Amino acid sequence: MLTSLLATPVLRLAAFVLVLGMPAPSVAYVSGRLHINAYNFYQTLALVPDDQFIFHEPSDPSRMLTVQQGFNDAQQPPQTVFSRSANATMDGSDGALSAYVDVELDGIPSQVINNPGLAALGIYSEASLFGSDFLEIKSSVLSAGAQVETACSLDVLGNGRVVADFNVFSVQTGGGQVNVLNLGYYDAGNGIVTGNHQGSFMAVVGGLYHIEYTLTASGGVDAYGMNAANQTKFKVSDYSNAHFYVDQVDPQVSYLKATSGHDYSQPVPEPSATLQMMASLLVLGQRLRRRARANGATAATNGLRIS
Question: Residue 130, Cα to own-chain centre: how many angstroms?
Fold first, then answer.
């Protein structure tokens, strides 16, 4: 189960790259997709078209997808008795990915009373991002082919369901690639996540290495169990801080040159940085949700609103 969860977002994004004719693998880029569907788990058929985007510059604005749908009863005038909504937001730049989703159900549809397992009344939201870059190992004191230790770190901070992955491949003569390091993280959404996963590999001076990194935040709810005493279901997955670092263990003898020009080395944190980041988690979900709802007008009866 875990293997499929880790693989699925990457495979979907890989297909996304091929279909849209995105940059060839030898070019550095960060891309993403926002997706919302009925049911409480991923379905190919979406309620609205996916938002797919390539982040060319760090200044590119974040992307947002919003759905709201209301269901009326048969009275005259009609009354909205059940509604569902979802928001998805993403942002990305070299080595840094951000994803946020929320989903909500409100009310008691008549179908739930007759069939508590009616999953089609649920809603699911997903924000997936994928980054790719190439790194060359350089040295002014070591000869080509000398081995140097290279360290990688996958840092995720947030809450809710998340899948993150960081892969390094050695580019062989002729273009083939061999995986030399994998860092992966999965959390089902049971609380605040402060995951830090580290690893290293022996690189060679003059060698070329391909890095791929992904982040997927998702959430889903269904109408099962909703009644007069429980008329709202709500979930949030908020990962505004996911960073992917690559450092030379001994920077005095070797350094990295990225195709993108980005510096992947891990900065020395300020003493208060961690505390400030944790505090921001308490307000970020509410802020993004308010912003998403402020972007649209009141939902039309039995209709969809997209922003």
Answer: 8
Q: What is the pLDDT of residues 219-248, one digit of tens each?
A: 999 988 888 888 999 999 999 889 999 999
Give the global pTM: 0.79
Q: Which of 121, 129, 97 is nearest to 16 (CA)?
A: 129
Long-range contacts of 229-234 (CB under 8 A, 24+ apart): 231/106, 231/107, 231/108, 232/104, 232/105, 232/106, 233/104, 233/105, 234/102, 234/103, 234/104, 234/105
Task: Tell which residue, 268, 266, 280, has the closest CA to residue 194.
Answer: 280
Cα distances from 192 to residues 189, 239, 282, in angstroms, run 8, 10, 10
Please report, for the chain, the start and end positions of each structural domain, with discontinuous segments joined by +. Answer: 2-284
**From the CA atom positions of the chain, what is the Rg in Å?**
22
- Long-range contacts of residues 21-25, Cβ cutoff 8 Å, at least 24 apart: 22/54, 23/54, 25/132, 25/210
Residue owning tokens 């290495």: 209
- Residue labelled with tokens 């070591």: 142
Question: H or E segment at 179?
Answer: strand 177-204
**Angle made by CA atoms 87, 91, 95, in degrees to the nearest 5:** 145
Given phi > 0 = left and psi -120 to 50 = alpha, else beta, which region is 295?
alpha
> Of how many residues is the chain composed?
307
How many angstroms separate the CA atoms of 222 and 226, rounded?
9
Helix (H) / strand (E) element for 210: namely strand 208-221
Q: How many CB atoms are located within 10 Å of the residue 146 CB? A: 15
